[in-house]
Amino acid sequence: MNNKDFYLQVLGLMDVGLVLINKNYEVQLWNGWMEKLSGFEADEVIGHSIFDVFPEVSGSRIDKSINKALKHNCPSILSSKLTRINFPLFISSFRSNEKKRIEQSILIKPMDLSDNSRCAVISISDISSSKLREKALREQTTILNKVINQLKEKDRHFNAIFENNQQGILIFDGDGSVINSNPAAEVMLGYNNRRLKSLKIPALIDELPQYLFKKGNEDKLQSKLPLCNTSIEMAMLPESGKKFPVELNANVIPFDNAQNKYFVFFHDITEKKQTEIILYKMARNDSLTGLPNRSSFIEELDKTIQHYKRRNNILSLFFLDLDRFKYVNDRFGHDVGNHLLIEVAKRLKQCVRSTDTVARLSGDEFAILLHEQEKIEQAGMIAKNIILSISKPFLLDGAKIDIAASIGISCFPMDGEDAAVLLRNADLAMYQSKKEGEGRYTFYTEEINHLLQQRLKMETELNIALRDGEFVIHYQPQYDICSGKIWGAEALLRWQHPQKGLIFPNEFIPIAEECGVINTILDWVLENALVDAKTLLNNFGAEFKISINLSPRQFADTGLPQKIEKILKKENISPESLILDITEGHLLAEKDHIFALLNNLRSMGVHIAIDDFGSGYSSLSTLRKLPIDHLKIDKEFLTTDADPTKQKNLLSSIINLAHSLELTVIAEGVENKDQYDLLIQQHCDITQGFYTNQAVAIKEFCNLSASNNQSS
Amino acid sequence: MGQIMNQSENTDISLDFLAESLNLGLGHVIDELSEISESRIELHVPEINLIPKTEALGFTKELRAESKAIFVKQQFAGDIEGEALLFFSEDESLKLLNGLLPDSDATLTNFADVEEEMLLDITNVAVTGVIYALSSILELSIATELPKCEYGRFDEIEGQSNLFDDAEEMILFITISFTLVSKDAKAVLLFFQHKNSFSKLHKSILQKLKLQ
After folding, report:
1. Of A204, A297, A359, B189, which residue has the fewest beta carbons closer than 10 angstroms?
2. What span, in angstroms and rounded, lies between the C-alpha atoms of A383 and B13?
3. At A170, which helix (H) or strand (E)?
4. In this complex, which of B117, B141, B142 lies closest to A105 when CB atoms are compared?
5. Cβ A61–B36 below 8 Å, yes or no?
6. pLDDT score at A319
7. Three-state secondary structure along A230-282?
């Protein structure tokens, strides 16, 4: 084999196409690869112009590049992308017999031959498979780029959230080392990012101690962390050392167990906690005195009872009500009243141990819980001290104020085993204290309870009485001592109970006042007495007087004069026929208001009488100023156990005084002839009582008219 | 005239001549690039300077900041010797190649084999065009090698080459810029030539101008 054959054989084995073209564009070399892919044997093309073999490349970049090589000695590299045309070379597809034109990379180089002639060497590479691989790679790259861009975008989002979040964020690994922190966390904790990264979580969060971060304690750590969208309160320890509360939630960034990472979001809730404390205090404490209020007192009482049930301890509960507090409020105004309540609260606290509880239940009602008492008697001692303390004058805003305290005491477990019962029983005992007079204390007893039951029963019956018309008015005749004739009548309320018979007002009026039916009853009396007055006037003449008692509750009714006027007009009764009786004690209590009311009534023509005169402390000057027409002497002045001389002189003085003030004197409660004679002797004007007549129903009263007339 | 002109003036005349000659001789380069890109190409007057190598390479500072750089080198030999060097950032090269591609083709988004082949193709068109223009005008015999391409971080490429050797050496620095009108793309080709080789070129120019 000569050299030429050897090289041709080698060229035939090459996996690229090789074509040699002389200056006339004639093919000089055509290797085996070209034979295979072009379909032309070397013998068929050698000596022929390349453009005859492949006419389609004529005039193309391939043509120009061959020309550049041959004429200008310039090589060319023709990229498949920038060369619109290539050689018509084909391979068979693996999957079918279809021939497929290959993608080509073409190099054209000039080559000077030894005979000074120049030829062009064309080498052609099949880059179809490279193209496919590249296509696949490009698709992968495109996808990868998209993913990278998305990740970058997410990273940007995450960074924006992380950096700008108002909540603090700490990221830490399983051993508690802080990996990263956001600016909010750094501000809240007072550490910079570098310093935080040198710390461990136990140094920052109280509730996550070091042992949780030991190997094998991952479950314990996760149980302590508020995962799954929950949050808990924890305490953060900042650089300043001043702990602050945070609301914190956490999450796990799972790797394998050993490499789990965690992050916590937290925000400072110091202000929220302070607000909560204020709201809690507001909800549980009385804003005026700062003492626990009713609901928190009952809560504590309940807790204490539960605790004491296990330990068999005893405790005492005081229910305290201030006497005359309403008077203070009305007399000095609500500011002074409030000031008084504050001072009372202070005194109460001074009277008990610091462990005992003083609460304000409402208005002027207080409660005291005395813990762990050995003897019940101790409660009595403390109650005495409290009563003594409260009875000392209060100097408030320049005024000297005297009040008193009424206390009811119930004890656990004797008087009840739950808060509601104990409080109710102490209240009942306090009520009993009030009944007995101000500044007293009373231990709850079954008897008190019994009285209460009776009271409750009576309350129900009073309502029934109103509904069923069981109230009646009896009239007690009043006689003119001089003439012996009936001068007038006092209307007296009676309750015609279906079972108990006739009940006098002193038995039911206090209860009616407490249960709120008193006003209805009083209005009923006023209206019906004036209706009866019409009958009485008809029977006894125009000079007849009808006396009706006014209750302090009616004083408060500013519409009372109009109400009376309306009835008088309706019944066509002269106002001069009506006498309104007002108890002396009540006159003194609310002087200004009552004076105005009485003046108003008097200007209408209605007569006013002071009832029970002598039982109170009216001064003579007061009596002089009062807008009154009649004076009713208290029956105490007629009792026979007094020194007869003194009794006579006193009675004489009162009657003379009244006469000098041009007042008619009416003596009530005259029970015997001696009293009656004494009154005649002392020139009393009018008399009433059992001695002359007891109170009777209207019908019976009218029957008296005959005898009256007979007397006249 | 030759006796009264100093060397500096001669050099300036040589460079002006060279620039004008290239301007006139580069027509077929423009034609071929227009054919490839199917876009009208405007050639700017070539700038030719004899400057220190470091100064010529000053623009590479920007490439150091880029993530990837492409470095194409094409040597030529014969009556004059030298090498043409082209530097691109990846973004620049893709912009140029996308400018050359017909609009119907998909946009190239990263530099790979196809892009390398394209870049070698157009570099070869430009460099061989310039060399041919020089050799034709000055009647010199110059053979051009096929270009080679390096792709990677600039510092790595620089480390593997002797690019900054003999930094103070004066080199011929030819800037040829053209604009693909419809594609709004620009390209700058830079030629380096060793001073020794430039002396030969200079001599040939002076002879051509009958100044020597």
Report:
1. B189
2. 127
3. strand A168-173
4. B117
5. yes
6. 96
7. CCEEEEECCCCCCCEEEEEEEEEECCCHHHCEEEEEEEECHHHHHHHHHHHHH
Tell which of A61, A66, A72, A134 to mutate to test the B interface (max B CBs under 10 Å).
A72
Instruction: Please state, in angstroms and rounded to a whole number, the distance separating the CA atoms of residues A640 and A638.
Output: 6
Residues in chain A within 8 Å Cβ distance of B36: 61, 82
Q: Can you tell me the distance from the alpha carbon of A597 to that of A555, in angstroms, rounded to the nearest whole number?
A: 7
Q: φ, ψ for residue A565 (rounded to 5)? A: -60, -40
The residues spanned by each domain of chain B are 7-208
- Is A402 in contact with A385 (CB distance < 8 Å)? no
Of residues B36, B105, B146, nearest to A77 (C-beta): B146
Phi, psi of A138 (to 5 degrees): -65, -40
Q: Nearest by CB to B100, from A82, A137, A141: name it.
A: A82
How open is the CA angle A163-A169-A172, to the nearest 5 degrees? 120
Q: Average pLDDT by consecutive 10-residue portion of chain A (712 residues)?
A: 67 83 92 91 93 92 91 88 86 75 89 85 84 64 68 79 87 90 93 93 92 86 83 92 92 72 90 86 87 92 88 88 88 90 96 93 94 82 94 88 93 90 93 86 90 82 91 94 92 92 88 82 91 91 92 79 91 93 72 81 92 68 79 80 77 88 91 89 92 90 67 40
Q: Give the chain B residue nearest A85 (alpha carbons).
A: B36
Q: What is the amino acid identity at position B161?
A: S
Residue B120: list chain A partners with CB under 8 A: 77, 79
**Nearest alpha carbon to residue A383 among A391, A393, A372, A395:** A391
Classify strands A545-549 and A486-497 as parallel, antiparallel or unpaired.
parallel
Whole-angstrom CA distances from A574 to A244, A543, A604 are 81, 10, 10
Average pLDDT over residues B33-51: 77
Whether omega for the bond prior to residue A413 falls within 30 degrees of 0, making it cis, is yes
pLDDT digits (tens, 9 = 90+) for A583-637: 876 766 556 777 888 889 999 999 999 888 876 655 566 677 788 899 998 888 8
- Neighbour tally for A377: CB within 10 Å: 9
Structure tokens at A301: 């009482």
3-class SS at A18?
A: strand
Chain A hits for B118, Cβ within 8 Å: 79, 81-82
Q: Give tens-digit pLDDT for A94-124.
A: 666 778 888 888 999 998 887 888 999 998 9
Contacts A–B by Cβ distance under 8 A: 70
Residue A139: predicted pLDDT? 66
User: Which residue in B has a C-alpha nearest to residue A72's C-alpha?
Assistant: B132
Contacts of A145 in chain B (CB under 8 A): 109-110
Domain B7-208 homologous superfamily, CATH? CheC-like (3.40.1550.10)
Tokens of A341: 């309540």
| pLDDT confidence of residue A351 | 94
Query: How far is Cα A166 from Cα A188, in angstroms, rounded to an integer?
Result: 10
Q: B145 to chain A: which residues are within 8 Å by CB?
A: 75
- Contacting residues of B for A80, CB less than 8 Å apart: 114, 117
CA A500 to the chain's CA centroid: 50
Q: The pTM is what?
A: 0.43
Tokens of B7: 């060397």
The whole-number pLDDT of residue A219 equals: 85
- Partner-chain contact A61 B32, CB within 8 Å: yes
> Are A522 and A462 contacting, i.e. CB atoms less than 8 angstroms apart?
no
Set out the domains of chain A in order of their start, with CATH numbers.
3-132 (3.30.450.20), 162-274 (3.30.450.20), 285-444 (3.30.70.270), 458-711 (3.20.20.450)
Pair type for strands A630-633 and A664-667: parallel
